[in-house]
Fold:
Amino acid sequence: ETTAIFRKTSRYLCCGGFNGKVMLRDPESLKLQHTLDAHSGISDFDASGHLLVTCGFSQRPGNEPQNWSLDRFVKVYDLRMLRSLTPIQSVVQPSFLRFMSTYTRRMLVVSQSGQFLLLEDNALVTPSTPIYQANLLGTTIINTDTSSSMQAIAFADSGGLLHLWSASATPNFNKFQKEPDFPAMLDPLDPINIEDENTPLSIIPMPYCQKSLFSDWPKQQCIPVSRRPPPIDPELLRTMKVVHGIGYAPNPGSRRRNQVPYKLKDITSNDCRGKNAAVPESPLGRDEQPHLYMVPKKYRKVTFKYSKLGEEENEMIQHYNRTFAGMEANIPNAYCNCMLQVLYFIEPLRCGLQSHHNLNKEIDLSEELGFLFHMQDCATSGVLQASNFLRAFRTIPEATALGLVQNSSKSEQMATGGANTNLGHLIQNWARFILQQIHTVNYDSLLQKNTNKHFVCVLLSNDCLAPKWEIETLFRNGRTTTRKTTQFLFNLNFPPLAKPAPTPVPFSSIVKQSICSQVNTKSWDAVTETYQPMVQTKKMTLLPDILVLNCSLLREEDMQFWKKQMEQKAASDSQQRASFKERGTTSDAWYIEYELFATVAHIDDPRTGGNLVAHVNVGEKYHQRKEGVTHTQWYLFNDFQISAVDKEDSVTFDLKWKIPCILIDFPLTSDILLPTPSISKRRRNLEPMSPGSSMTFTPLMPDELPTCEGVLVALDAEFVTLKAEEAELHSDGTRSTIKPSHLLAARITVVRGEGANEGVPFIDDYISTQEQVVDYLTKFSGGIKPGDLDASVSSKHLATLKLTYCKLRYLIQCGCIIVGHGLSKDFKVINIYVPEKQIRDTVHLFHMPRKRFISLRFLSWYFLCEKIQKDMHDSIEDARTALKLYKKYLELTKDETEMTDFRQNVLKQLYAEGRRLEWKVP
Structure:
């Protein structure tokens, strides 16, 4: 059937045909559901809610069209019951119908002669019903419609005129009015004087040519090529389920179904379009990425390229600071680098954690923090990694449950754009979690030490981190309950944004309102066993020595309030300190005055995903210990980029790109006694904590323990891969590393370097791990195979990483000289700091400037006439070979004359022989 009119309801698609029937179809499948036989011919119909009204023609005797006449009745149908209701008799001949549903459901009935009236859907026409007449000037109405706001009616007549009716002089035609957007006017072409001889021919546009041009490319070279999708995460390929050759993996929730996101170019790529697309007006932004010049350079996310030769170290040197050690960011969960720097500069916390040791517990975040702080103490510059701390952090189930462990790969983050990760909120949750862990671990240690309470446990489990609270609950029935608790940080509760005030709201009042709050809510009453209205009042009974405040700028209202405060502060230029008194005290002895110590901010940059930075007010004690001077200075810590800043920079936040996250305050006068950092007590010998099934080493006896500096030992370490590197293969065949592989020390060997047992190992530990290993690197890791690092099935001598770490740190603390080949990588993966004066690295001893580094295998063949690493690497053999090479080096450089000959002749002959053999051992 031919359809003349369409109307849509929430349930049906109504189609009116010329035969007078209304067909109700399914909106999805368009299948016919029901048919209503309304008239002999349809003139118009409309639907609203569950009602459908129609008007049309009735057929008189004879089939000629002139025998058809308009019905005086408007038929009404109930779409729920699919039946006809009582028709409405109209005083005008109904030709057009429209529902005008506003506060009530009304119906507009219009005749072709211009008469119309408004009827309720269930009302009768009475003599008092108003009838309106449009001035048609002898024409007829051919169509009618209403505005979406139901405030205007329009009629179109056969004479080409449009009649607009409204009850208001200024009606609104749309519910949501908006100025239309018109396209920009095209600039007219400049006229060209054809007689001007100075006008070049290129100014004249070429005429359209139907034939092929000489400059046209052949069709076979004009094949459209789609963009390559990003590589699939290797972790998904490894864990997916394969059925009949098709792999299935669960959607991690970071992408939509049937959607492949394309990987954007990295901001550090040498894309000529990215460099030359725009030139900033300011000279400060030239020679830089143009889309980043709005953010100051010192706040931007620092990135660099990785290479096989370790040239990224040279790229980091330009960011080095002579006083501080930076933190590397390209390791999993390194978003917390800024907070690790802040915790390090809290003197009571740093000293306490460095004195905390518990070798019986494998995973102890407090002890790992102490190890990290010790490395920061020893290192005066360079870049450190918090890999051991982060390894312990990601193995804690509570951290994973709270969403603090970020396991997504770089490719996945680039695909999702990091939209699901709010770095500001993430670092606030991390700070709350780590402070609670430090307090809980040390409080448990305090309870276990009944006879000799460790000073560090008392310090860290008392009021240093966790203030004392008293929560008083008053029920409506008059019953009152009181309980005591602790809270490690506070969320700032900002007042509602009011009208502009002449002065900013005092920061101390905001802190007081956030700490001492009163809440009206419902709670379970154990006496009546019902939920009762109650008033809960929080009061602090003991102030902390470290006041940690979360800014919590998650709402737009809070952002606007902070922005207004910054504007008013800049206008008034008033500064103040926050001061508090404990409950029930009026003496100055209980009066604590705080000053700002550190701030953590989120640098919001959509192109780089953003980063976190910290401003820290480094005090006199640190400068005196490191530089021998007494002064205080604010510093900006942006991973391994560290720079001195003014105090105003630390408290000035441009909310467009710099958003405050955490504020840390410290008392102006602190009388906390600081413990002296120490290492664990010296053991009688360096034997393993638990005997293994196979002993490949002889532990040091008491008479062999280092008693003075300069004792010679040789070290070698083997690794396994926890996560493969992320690399990008370019169209020109070059390959660049986006993110290096994540390695874990799997075997650590230390041999004696002198004495009767020279060359005999006294440490040969296989490192136990529960983490998933991607590649055991069996050929290069001394034959380590699956199961060798699993304590339940391994036949090797297993030890925890922390136990072996403490053995190595003891040797370093005693001043031992460590010999090895490529020690920088070994120390980096083990995550331990060794002073330069205690390192003898043969890879540098047998090296000429601006030349390649030589492998241990080739050096052993050339100088010792020994062939090693025939089938696979062995850490004991490598350590012994490095020791022999060092002794050979000492033999060749006994005095200054032989040293000159070694550099000018021996090394030249070594490189000449290597080039001749292509660095392969014959």
